Amino acid sequence: MTFTLPDLPYSFDALEPHIDAYTMQIHHDKHHAGYVTKLNAALESLGESGAHGTLPVLLANLSTIPDAFRTSIRNNGGGHYNHSLFWRVLAPDAGGEPSGELAKAIADQFNSFENFQKLFSEAAMSVFGSGWCWLVVNNDGHPAIISTPNQDSPVMYGSEPILGIDLWEHSYYLHYQNRRADYVQSFWNAVNWPQVQRNFAEIR
């Protein structure tokens, strides 16, 4: 089982001015690449008998991984999974609002899209230190907002992520410094809602 770094689906500067090119290059080519390298090293050391299935399956069944490898697979596997989704839910010339079944589900669950944005942004701002904020689909099929620490993924907790914002400082600090609120606000201008809708449809 070997994992590879996915290509970005756009150029490093495609998300400017919301996310700058240098941040994207370091984030993808250094941080994400590092997670992939360390994940593969942990799996190679673990051997054929210790880990099976897709990455979401591994992350959802961490208790079956031997103690000596569990933390590395949790951190680096989570980092690979989270970032692979993150790149796809961003796009140039994006933003706006969802449509179709996702728009209806968000309105039903959060009363309005505007209220969802408000609650999501508040949850993102409340993450202490490094972590993520997510729009997930729970087992009941309804969307929910959750946060996870470090590189933990919602699949570890039984939820399916369809949208996420990376809140590690490496994702925004070069451009925004300590202004996380500005980064979170700008994030909405880069959300690839058609992809988020596809993520939602695949789960439903």
3D architecture notes:
The chain is mainly alpha-helical. Helices cover 50% and strands 10% of the residues. A three-stranded antiparallel beta sheet has the order 2-1-3, with helices on both faces. A hairpin with a 5-residue loop joins strand 1 and strand 2.
How many strands, which pairing sense, and closed or not: the largest β-sheet?
3 strands, antiparallel
In percent terms, what proportion of residues is strand?
5-15%
CATH architecture of the largest domain: 3-Layer(bab) Sandwich
Helix content: 40-55%
Order of helices and strands: HHHHHEEEHHH
CATH class of the largest domain: Alpha Beta
Low-pLDDT sequence parts: none
Order of the strands making up the biggest sheet: 2-1-3
Number of helices: 8
Radius of gyration (Å): 17 Å
- Secondary structural class: mainly alpha
N→C terminal distance: 28 Å
CATH topology-level fold name of the largest domain: minor pseudopilin epsh fold
Shape: globular
| CATH homologous superfamily label of the largest domain | Iron/manganese superoxide dismutase, C-terminal domain
Mean pLDDT: 95
Oligomeric nature of the chains: single chain
Strand segment tally: 3
Tell me the count of domains: 2
